[in-house]
Amino acid sequence: MQLIDFILHVDVHLRDFVAQYGVAVYALLFAIIFVETGLVIMPFLPGDSLLFIVGALCGADLMSLSLALLVMAVAAIVGDQVNYSIGHYFGPKVFQWEDSRFFNRAAFDKAHAFYEKYGGITIVLARFMPFIRTFVPFVAGVAAMTRSKFTAYNVSGGLFWVLSLTLAGYFFGNLPFVQTHLSKIIWAMILVPGLITLVGAWRARGKA
Description:
Elements: H1 2-8, H2 10-21, H3 24-38, H4 48-59, H5 65-94, H6 105-126, H7 132-142, H8 147-172, H9 176-180, H10 182-207
Helix pairs in contact: 1-2, 2-4, 3-5, 4-8, 5-7, 5-8, 6-7, 6-8
């Protein structure tokens, strides 16, 4: 329940943390974003809403914008890189026996081909999709996507994700209308991307 409360009221909790611990907030930000992007067992931590709120706090001169951007961008890039490495390391070990029930050579080859062809845009777009962004780099590693290609899109996608949402919070997060409806905006940032993903998956399944 405390985690759910933190996610839904991240603006209040983060503001209180800044007031109480000061610069330690940057370590907290790094930890949250790194864990959310780097460990497949923690896909429910705040991402988009956290970046927006951090931008708003920077706009209110409670935090340093440049330092926040640097810390969060590094955490996002390193997190995805670690997630990819975990999938790349454990994937072959899980699928090492081609006649096992865990391995399907045709499915693996299709996944590898998909990530080689479309993996770049998938990695970038997944940054803006809660839950999905945690699993995409892991699957890219399992599917043996070329590391150099993954790294290039990981860096560009991570920078775009952090910069766009944090700067949106910086410029618009303290407007009276936004402050009045902030809880609804946080809900929208959680639910809307998830609904879009579900609809897309449902339509893809229907076509299949």
